């Protein structure tokens, strides 16, 4: 089903998500998903993405059940390898919840912080939403300069906080860059963001600090979905967070901005 206008209909977007493998039969294999669920359940904090999960999710079958409910992975625990899935209807539903939060922030003129651990895929999505919120009257938080985290620095380009090492932007799941930002804002007497729009540990850390957070997560990153299930994270949007062409996210971004009632970015 071709997209016939700049903003897709729900049916067009669902078809697009499946065709581009942002949802539907995604590239992340079942073995990888189950391995990450097991490691989270065994207490490996790398997979907690900045959230404090304690011992509440020590059974990997409980993690799988939440991921089936909120992400749409195959719910059969006997399915151990091969194809896994993200339900595009759940992606759309989460985008609608994210749009509702963006609308609230626009109406309130909130301070909003954007960050991504997937600069090779999601930076344009984040930047377009940031621009739309700025046009709607929101303040986009400026990240303090000179912040060090994980043997690199925190940089802000196109309104988006990212992690840089060796003059390259890094894919990172770590919460430490977001910790550095929030701690620096407090040290400098700046108010914390009213909303964080992020992914990976950037989102988990912000949510754990009590900030309203919209996060994007793949089916092998269960922590944000657990955080949403517990009410720590406001919205977790399920999607493959690094498909082969970053332009594939453009229709989804247009839908999100339109659903939020924002000026097109």
TrEMBL record:
This is Phosphatase. It holds the Pfam family Phosphatase. InterPro entries: Phosphatase_SCO2771.
